[in-house]
Amino acid sequence: MTAKSAAAAARATVYGYPRQGQSRELKKAIEGYWKGRVEADALRATATELRRTNWRQLAEAGIHEVPTGDFSYYDHVLDTSVMVGAIPERHRAAVEADALDGCFAMARGTQDAAPLEMTKWFDTNYHYLVPELGPDTVFTADSTKQVTELKEALALGLSARPVLVGPVTYLLLAKPAPGVAADFDPLTLLDRLLPVYAQVLADLRTAGAEWVQLDEPALVQDRTPAELNAAARAYRDLGGLTERPKLLVASYFDRLGDALPVLAKAPVEGLALDFTEAAAANLDALAAVGGLPGRRLVAGVVNGRNIWVNDLEKSLATLGTLLGLADRVDVAASCSLLHVPLDTTAERDIEPQILRWLAFARQKTAEIVTLAKGLGGGTDTIAAELAANRADLASRAGSALTHDPAVRARTAAVTATDARRSQPYPERAAAQRAHLRLPLLPTTTIGSFPQTTELRTARADLRAGRIDSAGYEERIRAEIGEVISFQEKTGLDVLVHGEAERNDMVQYFAEQLTGYLATQHGWVQSYGTRYVRPPILAGDISRPEAMTVRWTAYAQSLTTKPVKGMLTGPVTMLAWSFVRDDQPLADTARQVALALRDEVNDLETAGTSVIQVDEPALRETLPLRACDHPEYLAWATEAFRLTTAGVRPDTQIHTHMCYAEFGDIVQAIDDLDADVISLEAARSHMQVARELAGHGYPREAGPGVYDIHSPRVPSTEEAAELLRTGLKAIPAERLWVNPDCGLKTRAWPETRASLENLVTAARTVRTELSAS
């Protein structure tokens, strides 16, 4: 096919779409089901209607081939585990009794069975359920979900492409099951897994699939020769099947690197590549292998992870370069649109001109369709769209919101000394122990307490004008009083005020900083039914006034025990926002750090002796390629130190991280120079404690003993046993006792019981230590 005919054949598609619905109908239905208010059939009906609504909207917008199989009640990797029969033995009976309840048990756990581990999906803020595999794992095909959803779309008269997690990525994301040797490599199960994928592909072909997409994002990471050979073998075998649809192997989030020649040689009909995060690298690599003659290339030229309007002319230039490198060039987003909100038109509080800078899932869909039209018919066919796009880009570039001379002058004046504490850690630790006088194995929580119905109602009433600010603040004071009273009665050593006034750990601060925009309906799935509204970091950042001091000081006035000040760190403020793309991330991080530094100093001046600056996104934002790590970690750790380095030696700085793999950034954790770090450890059985010990981490640490992402209540003995495991890696004088993460999403009954057991476990182990 010539470049001209490839352009004429260009079509628009997407890899996935937001699942929740316009008003988060899926979240409400699932949580209603968990509480017994919604029947299973009603939940399934809601899910079916949401899928059909999405497909119809995509088709009406001009998407030629809609995705199926990307919808999930909880997580698409969990769905893949069900598809291949990788059900942990402890959950098998539940899954066999009821597939829906069994999946929820795997995700959330039960009182008798722990859930699957949960961690971040590559460098996004989406969480997936980690497959548990071992040498005895037996895979069996169950394509029910995938076939059912394909048939639903075909019944609507749509062209549909099922999307599956690819077999290599699935195995590379997996971990050894409990009781299996830690050095077991799940990739050794590939030959056992491929026949199951072959069966699923055959079932989908029988159901009417012309194409099936196999997602292999793990191949954009650094891969060993053995792993690349496994990918080659996988797609040689799957491509060699006779009873299968056409195969489109998709990658996203970064450049394919050494994996591109492997996939280019594979007997598959198409590849999908990211031309936003790694446009130049993937273009060069594709040209180097001679393109994809006779095959389909899906070009991800619209950023599927950020919300800025696309530069249509730049994307068309990229697409033009790709013509001639493949038999057919189609236009898509760089990844699933799961990672962005649904629709900008629902926003009423953002200035209309600024709103035109933004593109959520529906607007990105329109951009994809426009680009496909322009690629196939020429720029004259989209002249009006190009003119409007140029105006929107110019409006953003020239806005006063994006450039504050005072902020830029302050940032430029930062020196290395500003990011260093005045005394080394051993001297600080002695000063802090003398000042705080905490017991061995001090107990604390991570920060937030349950957000009750009364709190959410009060917040909604304030927005709607049903109560005034005085009435709202009275509710907040009462809630803080209750939280402090409970913690004192339970016997916790370092208290928190519970964050009753905060809607979200990033949004709360963003709403008080210049340069940020907040949405009303910009919901994005983080995990399961947990949805967040990432704020939009649009311009230069500063802090007009104190953000947390008043409520922290009020909580401290209610107790003689230390109350932690709670802040979200600069890297997490970037990672959990939709961040500006018109300047280096390091520059933006430094601006945020300076604003937070002012808050840290004001907390200390107000009498706060313990200040926690959370950085759960430090690992999440780590680039996917090792060669890019040093530059990122240098500015990320500097931003944290810039935030915290201005305090006295006897002020104790904490940080917190959760739900990521920390083993490869322990040196960066050390470089933060925090006095205490708390980390997720309950589901991973204290793995991070062993990693800290292996590094020789010299400071205090609190590996979590209570998994807050499950409703189950850990027993006293369970928490105590985790503590004993932690003590094998971390000396008692440096070990803290805490949950894995904040308690915002939990209910009060389970929170009370779990924290009471946590404190009792700490006391039990203290007694054991004193007797030894």
List the helices and strands and how they pair.
Elements: H1 3-8, H2 25-34, H3 40-61, E1 66-68, H4 76-83, H5 89-97, H6 99-108, E2 118-120, E3 127-129, E4 132-133, H7 144-155, E5 160-165, H8 167-173, E6 175-176, H9 190-207, E7 211-215, H10 225-239, E8 246-250, H11 259-265, E9 270-274, H12 279-288, E10 292-302, H13 312-322, E11 326-333, H14 352-355, H15 361-377, H16 383-397, H17 405-412, H18 425-436, H19 453-464, H20 469-490, H21 507-510, E12 514-517, E13 524-527, E14 530-532, E15 536-542, H22 549-556, E16 564-568, H23 570-575, E17 578-579, H24 585-605, E18 610-614, H25 617-620, H26 629-644, E19 652-657, H27 666-671, E20 676-679, H28 687-695, E21 700-703, H29 716-727, H30 748-771
Mean pLDDT score: 95
Percent strand equals: 5-15%
Give, in spatial order, the strands making up the sheet with the most strands: 1-5-7-8-9-10-11
Helix content class: 40-55%
Q: How many strands?
A: 21
Structure description:
This protein has 30 helices and 21 strands. Helices cover 45% and strands 13% of the residues. α7 packs parallel to α9 (190-207). α12 links the parallel β9 (270-274) and β10 (292-302). It is globular and about 75 Å long. The strands form 6 sheets. The chain has a 7-stranded parallel β-sheet with strand order 1-5-7-8-9-10-11. Strands 16-18-19-20-21 form a 5-stranded parallel β-sheet. It is α/β, with parallel strands linked by helices and 772 residues long. The N and C termini lie far apart (79 Å).
